[in-house]
Amino acid sequence: xxxxxxxxxxxxxxxxxxxxxxxxxxxxxxxxxxxxxxxxxxxxxxxxxxxxxxxxxxxxxxxxxxxxxxxxxxxxxxxxxxxxxxxxxxxxxxxxxxxxxxxxxxxxxxxxxxxxxxxxxxxxxxxxxxxxxxxxxxxxxxxxxxxxxxxxxxxxxxxxxxxxxxxxxxxxxxxxxxxxxxxxxxxxxxxxxxxxxxxxxxxxxxxxxxxxxxxxxxxxxxxxxxxxxxxxxxxxxxxxxxxxxxxxxxxxxxxxxxxxxxxxxxxxxxxxxxxxxx
Length: 278
Prior knowledge:
By secondary structure, this protein is α/β, with parallel strands linked by helices. It has helices at residues 14-27, 38-45, 62-78, 88-91, 112-152, 200-210, 219-226, 235-249, and strands spanning 6-11, 30-34, 51-55, 82-87, 104-108, 174-177, 180-183, 188-191, 194-196, 217-218, 259-262, 266-269. Strand 4 (82-87), helix 4 (88-91) and strand 5 form a beta-alpha-beta unit. Helix 6 (200-210) packs across helix 8. The protein is elongated.
């Protein structure tokens, strides 16, 4: 069965490299292997892998730490999960262990059954995501057609101002905080009718702020909401996602008007002066 599932392999281990290549060939996954350096890793990212498998040693030097920092940054910015093959004999003696930020950790030498179970779950998730995206696109097209029909049949005098603190209609899965519309069913946010291309974490972050506008959400409260089962998530992780979300919402992410930082406390969704946005 041919698939469009793409795996990026970052490895300095010939054994794991050969094993993974054979596995991907047998399952007809596309695999892109790269060396452990900045230029090669950035080239691999252009292939848009669905997952990265990281199989490199934990040498205690500055170059290796920079490699881990780069892979971590790419994983966050591009929303690519990382599967780390960890050498348990050397991990305890290393100063940097990616196990605290990767999606999953498998101990080396690699158990191919464990890898198969993990990749199978990711492959299923990938296809469910593609199917949901297609369904959402169809729903969006149907919604546009329905909106056009409603506008054509609109009777003057029947317009009522919307309460921005309440759902826009009787469906509690959809609510409006003008000029944003949040659809919890399809995990979508619209800004003045335009769909924002938010990732899962970005949607969860915006949804939390929108459910109680002008309330200041404490930083630790937001971190616990976004990563309830990860006690290693930090403020740095939240700052990354907040920056990415602002880039998609704000005219000037460095001078935000919608999502405000309340120094010393946290963040809030500002509805006081929406007229500032164009």
